[in-house]
Amino acid sequence: MRIELPLVSDQPEQPPRQPTGAPGAVVVDEPAATRNMRDVQDTAVRELLRLSPVIDELGARFTGAGEQIALVGGPVRDAMLGRLHNDLDFTTSARPETTERLLAGWADATWDMGRSFGTIGCRKGPWQIEVTTYRSDAYAPDSRKPAVAFGDTLDGDLGRRDFTVNAMAVTLPDRRFEDPCGGILDLAHGLLRTPGTPEDSFSDDPLRMLRAARFAAQLGFTVDPGVVHAMTDMAQRISIVSAERIRDELVKLVLAPDPRRGLSLLVETGLADRVLPELPALALERDEHHRHKDVYEHTLTVLEQSIDLEVRLPGGGPDLVSRLAALMHDVGKPRTRRFADDGTVTFHHHDVVGAKLTRRRLKALRFSNEVIERVARLVELHLRFHGYGSGEWTDSAVRRYVRDAGDDLERLHVLTRADCTTRNRRKADRLRRAYDELEERIARLAEQEQLDSVRPDLDGNQIMELLGVGPGPEVGAAYRYLLEARMDHGPMSTDEASARLLEWWRARSGS
């Protein structure tokens, strides 16, 4: 199908914009930017050809009813970056009830995404679509929810968006590119900038400060110095945003290709002090002899190394539980740091303390109970391997290691390996070999004993029959005893397990 889209608008070409509030702070390579512009345009044309079946039909449907509609925001930005996906956002002059009527009979299914916010969702083949009425949002100084007002123009809708690279649109069905805020130039320059002043933007929706860090991590963009300055000055305003919205942004940031970039920005601006205070707390001051690592930098390195090891996990990543465990694994260190008389530093039991802090923080951010328990368990277990020493663990200790890790054994492998950040190559090689050996022992025992489903050698019915008791606490105690015996001695025959259980029962009964 023929493309009518002029990817550079009819307005005369403008020189690159200087960063807000920081004239001359960013030096732009103009020939490179021009080449980037051409690449962006070519990529967008290819992506719009792929989108033609849905955008042409939707455009004709709305304009035929006398309404305006445009592809907008992230899908336009990602089309220019070559980031293909099937989630499409549109903005329209139509009110929600009109949008719902126009989608009926065309979409495979429709649903109310949030009528009060002007959004109706639908599915058409492989496409997930959201259509939102032109609008402007603003927060009152002490409000957690935005006041929504519907607008009448596309430019007005684009001007209220978070960043210029998200304030571009393609009108339908004529496919005209609209870019009133210079987003295509910022995209070519890899710059994250707000359409108006960042202070006004962040006052309207403080969550945009976290989105700046998230987009930096996702896209690898430089954040405009004026934006960073506003984030720093307005960090306290994030307190009016709900924990659920903060959690969702943090999840997207942590799952991004370069979470270190975004997390560092949160720490630099003071936002982390309010949404994830355990992270900046890791920047412990060093003693004068530099006898312990910078725990904050160590943590970010462990996160990066765990990402590199995600190929080991089912699905190959990105893996939220694994990344959160890497991020939180040492959060107990500030609470447990002690200085000995000789100047050495210890962090005894920081694994246990860290697990408690992790549960508290993830609960405050409204993570699911499953995610909370999995991450906290990995934090609590992350030091277990260091008791392996020279490989002298008994089979019983290996079985317990596997049992305690449960379904997260592979994640524990990733975290433990990633936690080695020493620059001493000899020490790093020794730790790697020791963990290789442990994994080999786990594999051998798993093959011999089905470690992934370790259970006592007698079930509940057999226990009750052998002991002559009914359901009750005695059966649970017997079950636990047999499970520990299984861990200590490996698989037993029914006769062996019965003999051990009867001996335990007699000793327990005093007979």
In words, what does this structure look like?
The chain has 511 residues and is an alpha+beta fold. The protein folds into four domains: 1-196, Beta Polymerase, domain 2, CATH 3.30.460; 197-276, Hydrophobic Seed Protein (Orthogonal Bundle), CATH 1.10.110; 283-453, Hypothetical protein af1432 (Orthogonal Bundle); 460-509, no CATH class. The chain is 51% helix and 10% strand. The chain is built from 22 helices and 13 strands. The strands form four sheets. The chain has a seven-stranded mixed beta sheet with strand order 3-4-5-2-1-8-9. Strand 3 (109-114) and strand 4 form a beta hairpin. The radius of gyration is 29 Å and the shape is elongated. Residues 1-29 and 287-292 have low confidence and may be disordered.
